[in-house]
Each structure stands twice: as C-alpha cells, then as structure tokens.
Design a protein that fits this description.
927 residues; binds magnesium ion; 46% helix; eight-stranded parallel barrel; eight-stranded mixed beta sheet; alpha/beta; binds phosphoenolpyruvate; elongated
C-alpha cells in the first residue's frame, strides 16, 4: 500500500494523510494550568487557540478544552474526512471530562461544550460557532436538575437554533419567528422575561421546524460534535468568509482551527455575566480598562448588540461591573495586567462570569483606531514593554491617515445642535467627521457610492453581510449595539467614522426613512456623523483640520497641548531611524511645499509646472502662447510667463532650502489649456484679442484622437523649444535669486515622457546651454541635475543608453502603468472594478504597483540605468509613491526615494520603515 507524500501547507505544517495522523499530534489539550499547544503559535492553533493555550499556561482561569489545528481543516476540505483525528479528539475530550467532573451527554451531570472557529488572523463573525453542544434530550434532565428547568430550556433553544442553522442549514429566521411571537403574546421586552413554560413551547416549535424541514436533529452527543466540527471547518469557505479574506488579503490556504471547550454560563442568574474588555481604550489608546458586560447573558448577546451593556469600570451609575461584582472586577484587572505583560500588546478579552467565578474565553490583539495605535505603541515603549522598532511595526501606515482626517468645527456643530438638527447621541465607535447621503442597505450604499456620492450607511445593527456597504460608506451609523458590536469592530479596523447604539433613532426600512426627536430623514438626505463624540446631525456640516494638522500646519494648537501630536512625531522619528528609502513630496506651490516639509519630506520629487499655468493671471499668457502663429509671438507670450514662473520657483526654493527640488517641464498636451465650450471660447477669444473662429480653429487643430499618446511631454519641448527654454531659464534665475539671499537650492530639471535617448540628449543640451547663459548673466553658476521620468516602457528597456547623460530617473508609474497595460488612466473605471471582482486583476494597478509587470520594468530600468551610470539616483513620483504595498516593493527594488502627495508623506515614512524592518526581520530569521 502506498502513502501519499505530505504536501506543503501554509498552515505551518505539512498536511498529513490519515494513515500518518497517528504519529503527529494535531489536537492540543488545554486546562488546569497545562497547555499542550503553548508556544506553537497562531499558524498552527489559530489566534483563538493560541490565546487560550497561552492564557492557560499563564495560570489564567480558562475552561478546559482542546484545539484541532489548522492543518486538519485543509485536509478535511480536501478529503471530507475527519477519521485521522478521531482518536486524539476522544482522548482530549476524556481529559475535559476528567477536569470538569462531568460527562459528555450524561443524563445526570452533563458536560456541554462550545465549538468555535479560530483562524490565524481574526475574522470577526465570519465563521461559525455552536454553543451548548452535547445538550441531548437525556442531558436536558441533568442540566435542569442542577441549574433549573428554565435555564436548561433556554440553553436547548439556543442550541437547537444554532446547530440547525449551521450544520443542518435551516435559516435562523424560521426559528426566530416563534420566540418573537411568544414575547409579543407575553408583552415581554427581553427573552429573559419568558417563563420555563414559554420556553418549552418555543423548544417544541423549534423541533417541529427541524422535522418539517425533513431534517433529523442528532440526539447522540458524538454525532453532534462531529457534525459541528465539520461545519465549522467548512465555514472557512462560506461566502462571507471568502469575501472578508479577499478584502483583508488573508490567504485561502491558512485554514481555520476548531476549538472545543467546556461551556461556562453567563446566563446562570444575576451573579453571572458575559462581557468583553480592552486592556486600553481602543478609540484613543488611553491606558484605562475599557469594556462592557451584560448580566445574565451569553456571549453572543454582547457582540450582537441586542441589549445595551454596562461599563466595567465604576462610572457612578451603580451598574458597572466594578460596582455590582467587585471581586470579579478585581480578578479581571489581574488578568489584564498579566496578558498585557505577556502578549506585550493591547488585548481584546472575552470573559464569562459563572456564579461569581471569572473565566477567560479569548484574548487577541485588539483592533484599534489609528489614534489608539499610535498612542499605544509609543506608550508601550515608554513603559518598557516593547522596543522602538516594534512600536514602528505596530502601526499600519494607512492608519496614520485617520490622524489627519477632518473633524467638525465646534462652532458650526454647536449652531447645528442649537438649531435643532441633533438627531441623536450614540456611542463614538470610529473617530472622525463624515458627512454623506443616507443609505439604509449595504447594496444601496455600494450603488450610491459608485455614482460618486459620499454615503452614510444607516443600519439597526450590522452583520458580516454588510461588509461591502461599510467599505463603500464614508460613515456608519447603527441604532443598536455597543462599542464592541460588529459595526464598531469592523469600522475601527477600516478606519471609518462610526457611531453605534443611537437608540433614539427609529429606522423604518420599509419607508426608507429614519426618525428621531420629531425629525425625519429619507434615503439620499445628508447626515453628519461625528464619530469622535458620538453625535448624529441632520444635514451637511463643514469640516475642519484634525488635531495633528492644527498643531503641525495651521499652528492653531500649541504642540504641548497635544499628547497625540507628540506620539505621532515620536513614532515617525523612530521610523526615520529605520528606513532606507528617502521620502519626498509631489508639490506644485510654495504652500504645498511648506506642508510637505512640515510632514518631513526630504525634498520635492515632482513639481508639475503646468499646474502653475492655470493661475488667474497666467492662463491668458499661456493661451496667447498657444494661439501664437509664429515663434516670435510665442516668445512674446512666454516672456510674460517667465517672471511669474520664476516667482513660483523662488517661493518653492525658499521653502525647501537645500533640499532637492525636482521640477518637471511642461507635460500635458496644449489643448488642455484651451476652452472647449462655446461661451468660454467666445470669452477667451475676446481676452486674447482674436476672433472666436480663429480660436476654434486652433482648438480643432490641437485636437487629438489619443491625447495621452499624443503631442505632450518632451515632444512639446522638442517641437516648441522656446517653451522649455523659458521654463528652464525661470528655474535658474530663481535659483540664482535665492542664492543671493544666502540659500543653497538644489534644482533638478526633469524631462517628461522620454522614450528615446535622442529626445533626452537633445533636451539635456538645451538645459545645459540655458544654465550656462543664466550663469553668465547672473555671475553665479548654480549646481543642478538633469534627469528624466521613466514612464514609457521603451524608456525602461533602453534605460542604459538613456542613463548615459542622465543624473536621475524618476518613475512616473501612472503613465508607466497606463502604457504597460494599455489601459487609459482616465477611462479604466469602466472595466477595472469588474476585473478585480472577477479576479482577473488582484488590485487596481493604478493604486498598487503591478509587481510582476510594471514592477519588472521598474527593476529592469533601475538595474540597466545604474549599470551604465553608477550612482544614478532613482525614485518614483507616480501615485504609487504613497501606497504602502508599492513602497515595500520599491524598497526591495533598491530605489533611492519615493515621492507622494504632502498628506501621504507620513504614511510613506512609516511604510518605508516597515519595508526595511520586515526585511531585517526576515533576514535575521533565515540567518
Ligand atoms: C506619472 O505618470 O506617474 C506622473 C507622475 O506624471 P503625471 O501623473 O503628471 O502624468
Ligand atoms: Mg506622467
């Protein structure tokens, strides 16, 4: 007989054929202070299993159980067979029985278990969980005898519904209807008000639903267990989980572990409870124990946000855990200190209190806002918990965007409140200010956002099915739920503005409207959501810069008044200490240059001179230049432009001091500067002192079938040399002027859209000649560099010959992507979303560099360019220069710098540090 060789797997282990299973341990027991899986890590045990093992080993009270590792999931999904792990599961189950003193399925003292998923990276709510498993008819009697009949019936009802939904695939609503009906008949608000008799009626109806469906509900505990284990493994591939993995780039081949654990009950009376806690505030990062609980409830009640929970720490309401169960609170505080020290990161805990005893059911690194990420990372360095490098890696570069996001100005907001526009106050779950049109369903949110409208998604509560709508929205509002509800957790992860638990609002899904405080808003109306304060206002509110911007750019808030700003700066300084890539900014005006410098840009990587042409006084001169019939007339118009352009450059050089400033000569086709509408043509013709017909004629003559591939870039410089000459003169005159002020500017002249050596060399001669002329006139030779953009595939391939006379390359990855794929950058939106959805493309290549294609051209050009011209400086100035994933690639490709918009400079600094540090970590782990 032959045995299949084990195949590699991303779960950290080889997958194992059933025949080999006996020799490899794949089921890991934890309980009574012993954890077989301690140290195995998330790859093998999944996040939940690993957390349970580590907590057990730390002596934290965890109900006993076992983890079936992720490699079993992969085997099962391939073979449909779990036989290989049966003996191990039986053995572990027997240990749980011994530890609890209860027997699985026993009629007098039954052991009930939970069966939960747990992937390597948390996928909240995406996969399945079954509670109260093992509650057979016989076990019902035993549970009723020890915990009361009502309790046993409540457990049975939950079990019937969960198991039937997940394993037998009977929709939840078919059961829900009976519970609702009974509550209505009894005038009860909560399930907890139903009697044993009511629940028996509900349980009978549930059993009928199963029978009617032709399904048979297993009454053998082992059959239940294996049914549940298989279903949880299969839930790895349910559509929600797949969609989540796609959004968060979680590899398909990780698989999930299954955790089987003895049940403890938070719904066993008023001395029982269930809750969640964060070791620090997940919104601000402040070091305070933060969380909420519900007395007499089971775990899913808190997460589902059906009843609004109470806080953990005393708040004077008399309802907090600290006030109602002080001993349990003290135990949780002890656990908090232990897990923070051990995991060295902010933890998100799930706990249950059963008749006064605290049990921990989960610990994982808590999802947090960008504000909290920065604060927690820097605080933990100060507390000696983590190193500066670890702190840098703890903050996702993209999270910094939240710290720069706008807020509502206090005055305007107060006026709106006074004006009666405050709809409700809910819980602040995702900071920032968002203003958008109301959508009541995820689908509508996606549709409206596609049309370009900002959308606020309004739901009673969200579920994983709403993910796409939440992504599409600028803000999220729910009327139910707490700060750990699905909406809160997901919004925080996405960095979206979010308010939850705005209970005053009634959502009328049928009429597509919401109501509160005598106000009504319909789908499409504007809503303003303040996710920092928790306020919801009707209509549109203006926004103002964030705290960081007020300190850094506006100067309206003194730095010493903002601990957040201090943390932000500290983190970025640490990042600078770790990165190799330089970070510059794309800036076209002195104002942009100033912002860029304040954000730490080390230079300007792209100054698009054409943006200056649109200035109020300039556009007329630009148009005169374009409509001119002769070179002489063109020069006359250019002479008017020269001083203006010189002033622009002087402003930028003054801002940037010695830092390099890369100025690109004119790039777009000339027709972009002319009017096209009839009225505008007439008005412009008057301004230019020519007839409308003549102007129309010029517009017609400049029209091109493919302007992006037309008369633009260096092609303009070659055919109208006087345009480029004037720009270059303005650059050198400006540099000479600021040198007279004592500054030492470093101008870099950049030629756009070069495809051949001939183009570059010819224009290089022109630049050198103009520089020489200006030096003769001013008596000062300004040091400068001349380089080219690489944005045409041919230029990338012929990089060696182009580099020969060149000081630098700057990849214009916008055009390079456009020309490599042959996708128009202005029109690709009509098919790109479909391509991404169909999996034809993994990402939008205009947002994240296409590594195998465009990226290869970048690598080729860099290598060939540097081989021909050692020391050639190479950077990137397309949009990709501000995208963290692309930055990782550019780091690996050996580029010298990236250049991005001023507001992304902080993101790029952090991303460049991540790239360097993860390489460092990878290198040291293989050494
Ligand atoms: C580019 O093509 O990447 C670039 C930076 O130039 P522009 O976007 O102005 O075409
Ligand atoms: Mg370009």
């Amino acid at each position: 007989m032959s045995v299949d060789p084990p195949t590699g797997s991303a779960s950290g282990r080889a997958t194992v054929s059933p025949l080999m299973a006996a020799t490899v341990k794949r089921v890991h027991y934890f309980g009574d202070g012993h954890a077989e899986g301690a140290g195995l890590g998330k790859e093998i045990l999944g996040g939940k299993g690993s957390g349970l093992a580590e907590m057990t080993a730390l002596g934290i009270p965890v109900p006993p159980g076992f983890t079936i590792e992720t490699s079993v999931c992969l085997d099962y999904l391939r073979t449909g067979n779990l036989d290989g792990v049966r003996p191990e599961v039986e053995e572990a189950l027997a240990r749980v029985e011994r530890s609890t003193g209860r027997k699985f399925g026993d009629a007098s003292n039954p052991l009930l278990v939970s069966v939960r998923s747990g992937a390597r990276s948390s996928m909240p709510g995406m996969m399945d969980t079954i509670l109260n498993l093992g509650l057979t008819r016989a076990a019902m009697a035993g549970l009723a005898a020890s915990a009361g009949e009502r309790f046993a019936l409540d457990c049975r009802r939950r079990f019937l519904q969960m198991y039937s939904g997940i394993v037998l695939e009977i929709p939840r609503e078919e059961f829900e209807e009976f519970l609702t009906r009974r509550r209505e008949e009894k005038g009860a608000k909560f399930d907890s008000e139903l009697s044993a008799e009511d629940l028996r009626w509900v349980v009978d109806r549930y059993e009928e639903v199963v029978r009617r469906r032709g399904a048979s509900f297993p009454d053998d505990p082992r059959e239940q267990l294996w049914g549940a284990i298989g279903a949880v493994f299969r839930s790895w591939n349910n559509p929600r989980a797949k969609e989540y993995r796609r959004l968060y780039r979680i590899p398909e081949e990780w698989g999930t572990a299954v955790n089987v654990q003895a049940m403890v009950f938070g719904n066993r009376g008023e001395r029982s409870a269930t809750g969640v806690a964060f070791t620090r505030d997940p919104a601000t990062g402040e070091k305070k124990f933060y969380g909420e609980f519900l007395a007499n409830a089971q775990g899913e009640d808190v997460v589902a946000g059906i009843r609004t929970p109470h806080p953990l720490a005393a708040d004077g309401s008399g309802k907090s855990l600290e006030e109602t169960m002080p001993a349990a609170y003290a135990e949780l505080v002890r656990v908090r200190d232990l897990v923070e020290k051990s995991f060295r990161d902010m933890q998100d805990l799930e706990f249950t209190i059963e008749e006064g005893r605290v049990y921990l059911l989960q610990t994982r690194n808590g999802k947090r806002t960008g504000f909290a990420a920065v604060r927690v990372a820097t605080d933990m360095v100060a507390e000696g918990l983590i190193s500066e490098k670890e702190a840098v890696l703890r903050v996702e570069p993209e999270q910094l965007v939240q710290l720069l996001a706008p807020v509502f100005p206090a005055k305007e907001k107060e006026a709106a409140v006074q004006g009666g526009r405050l709809l409700a106050r809910g819980l602040p779950a995702g900071p920032g200010a968002a203003c958008g049109r109301i959508a009541f369903t995820a689908d509508r949110a996606v549709e409206m956002a596609r049309k370009g409208d900002p959308v606020v998604l309004v739901r009673v509560e969200t579920s994983p099915e709403d993910s796409a709508g939440m992504h599409a929205a600028v803000g999220i509002l729910t009327t139910r739920g707490g700060i750990t509800s699905h909406a809160s957790v997901v919004a925080r992860g996405m960095g979206k503005t979010c308010v939850v638990g705005a209970g005053e609002i009634t959502v009328d899904e049928r009429r597509h409207e919401l109501r509160a405080r005598n106000l009504t808003a319909k789908e499409g109306d504007f809503l303003s959501v303040d996710g920092t304060a928790g306020d919801v206002l009707l209509g549109q509110l203006p926004t103002q810069p964030s705290e960081v911007l007020r300190v850094l750019v506006d100067g309206t808030l003194p730095p010493e008044k903002s601990p957040l700003f201090a943390s932000f700066q500290r983190l970025l300084e640490w990042a600078d200490g770790s990165r190799r890539l330089g970070v510059r900014a794309n800036a076209d005006t002195p104002t942009d240059a100033r912002v860029a410098r304040l954000f730490g840009a080390e230079g300007i990587g792209l100054c698009r001179t054409e943006h200056m042409f649109f200035g109020e006084n300039r556009i007329v001169a630009v148009r005169q230049m374009i409509v001119a019939d002769s070179e002489a007339d063109r020069r006359k118009a250019l002479a008017k432009l020269l001083p203006m352009q010189r002033e622009d450059f002087i402003g930028i050089f003054r801002e940037m001091g010695e830092r390099p400033v890369t100025i690109r000569l004119l790039d777009p086709p000339l027709h972009e500067f002319l009017p096209h509408e009839d009225a505008a043509v007439k008005k412009t013709a008057e301004e230019l002192g020519i007839t409308a017909e003549k102007l129309r004629e010029r517009v017609r003559s400049l029209a091109e079938a493919n302007p992006m591939l037309g008369h633009r870039g260096c092609r303009l410089g070659i055919t109208y040399p006087e345009i480029y000459e004037t720009q270059v003169r303005a650059i050198f005159e400006a540099a000479a002027a600021v040198r007279r002020e004592g500054l030492r500017p470093s101008p870099e002249v950049m030629i756009p859209l070069v495809g051949t050596k001939g183009e570059f060399d010819r224009l290089k001669i022109m630049v050198d000649e103009t520089a020489r002329l200006v030096a003769g006139e001013t008596g000062d030779a300004v040091p400068y560099r001349v380089g080219t953009m690489i944005e045409i595939p041919r230029a990338a391939l012929r990089a060696a010959e182009i580099a020969a006379n060149c000081d630098f390359f700057s990849f214009g990855t916008n055009d390079l992507t456009q020309m490599t794929y042959g996708y128009s950058r202005d029109d690709a939106a009509s098919f790109l979303p479909a391509y991404i959805e169909l999996g034809i493309l993994p990402d939008d290549p205009f947002g994240t560099i296409d590594q195998p294609g465009v990226g290869e051209l970048v690598s080729i050009a860099t290598e060939r360019g540097r081989a021909a011209k050692p020391g050639l400086k190479v950077g990137v100035c397309g949009e990709h220069g501000g995208d963290p994933r692309s930055i990782t690639f550019f780091h690996g490709a050996g580029l010298d710098y990236v250049s991005c918009s001023p507001f992304r400079v902080a993101v790029a600094r952090l991303a460049a540090a991540h790239a360097a540090l993860s390489k460092e970590t990878a290198a040291s782990s293989t050494a």
